[in-house]
Amino acid sequence: MDESLECCVMSLEENAEDVRDEARRALLSICRNVLRSPDSCRSRELRLDDEVVVEKLLPAVGAMECLFDIGYVEDGERIFLPQDASLLKLQSLSRLLCGGKDVNLITDDIDKTSTTQKAFFNRVVSHFRGVMDYEDPELQRMAKRVVPVVQLEIATMEKIRDLQNSLKSGSATEASSQLEAELMAKDLFLVELLRWFKYRFFKWVNSPKCPTCGAECVYENVIRSTDPHCSRIELHRCQRCGIVVEFPRYTHPKPLLTLRRGRCGEWANVFTLLCRSLGYDARFVCDETDHVWTEIWSASNKRWIHVDPCENVVDKPLMYEKGWHKKLTYIIAYSRDEVQDVTWRYTRDQEAVMKRRKACSEQSLRHLLQSLTSQRQNAAGYSRARREYVVKRSLLELGDMLYIPNSQGTDSDEETYEARTSGCLLWRLARGEITNDDLGCYTWDISSYGQMFELRYNVVKDRYHAVRCDNGDILERTSGWKKRVRHSEGGIFRKVEDDWKMVYLARSSDTARGRVQWSFEVGKSKLCIGTFALKAKSEVFHGATVSWELEVTFHDDRTAVIDVPNCSNFRTEEARGAVRLSVVATLSGGEGREAWQHAQLFRQSLDNTEEPSMIINIQLKSCSRHRHGV
User: Fold this and answer.
1) What is the pTM of this model?
2) Active site residue 264
3) Catalytic entry in 8, 18, 217, 291
4) CB count, 10 Å around CB of 64?
């Protein structure tokens, strides 16, 4: 039997039993379909956005690796088994998945409810024990030593001075002002810590680079680890020199303080430890649909604050449901004091979530969480005063979460949530955490609005308005900047700076250039573009640039590129006679690791909610002759 295939199948056991069983069934179905119709191209092909791939294979460790091991290859938006591939390995996979039994004997006779509950509860217990690693005094000392505390404190005090100057008021007493400043400092320091962690300290790894030649590696396999601090070892092969590079997936934060790399599990693990070492009440939060992050108790706000170190996002709990399109089930928070089901902080659709919570009964889950919390709070050395404090804090939290599900009608249309930015694009798209809508691919038909088209975009509200020029009436509203762009690249995202009260579009931290394209066409053949005007905001720092240009196509298929030297007030008739036009903004340059932040498209104050960040005005005219071919 092929050892690499055995390892792939063995890695399926690392999943929760329900995830593992779904993946097994899906893999067996794929094998059976190919074996029944080996000459059918359709049976050999799977699209990456197919429900089977997204919901059953991608969530399971080892599932996609099984397919690649038996010969499947990736081709853009699909994976397929080539016609010349041997079916022997596919038959071997079928036998391994069935434990040597016939391929048609799928283990449907398992008591799925009880096995699923057992696996879920085991994970809860394991996480609850694991967070006590953060309480190791020596580990906390090691963690605190890696944090540039003085540098972050200076940055925090600068922010506080700016905020105090902008919020000066003679009504507060000196004592209350000092207390508010202390509480504010702790929250603002957290923001600085998060930014430093994301852009200076930790690194996201999709696949490690070859240590020999520096080329990109490709995931190949996974093997078990004998290190109790490591869950598994991924094997990645260099595409240039062919050597195999190991990528250990550590579950204990100590080695990660030195390695400083990983995916969301490693990120949240280390960031939660750093927060504990700095005196924050911090919790490790685990989403059973495969993501983890941190929560911090804010004394100034008297509530738990959502903090995602992978995304550099603070207090956006609905981001996963609304921005990532996650179908949430259970979200559990673990700390030295308690374990809490915090799902309701992260959803506005309680009814849908309840339908998906099938791992156990709600009563049995409450009993388990209460038992674990009681055990922890009655342990030797746990003070009565601490217990009373935690109980009061829990009551505040329960009241806070009760508000969320009942607020469905109050969610503002002006509040938008970004799609995921960490991880490679194909991975995010396949997991359903970014959709085609998020990617854009939209073209405006300007002739459908009359002979004068005006588009306004406000980055604060993240909303487009197509308006009637003669009276200012709004003809169309669209929320979400990505939904009305033709194309974007370089990981462009909407960045909100709550501390500075500013918002803008920026490129991803790991790209040298970002690009956004808005496209317009004249759908009516007797019309064409007459004049074009653009007004847009941008700010640049440390040698960065935001450049603009127009790409135009005329009725006879001629093309031209028109430079835009001044985006704040640009007007041209060089596009006269065009039937298609694209407005392109390019972000580049800057210095150091924060170069991505030095080119800011549409930078605007959060208080400036009404002024457009961009206005595009296009006047149409009658064409002297029709388009070519019409």
Assistant:
1) 0.59
2) yes
3) 291
4) 22
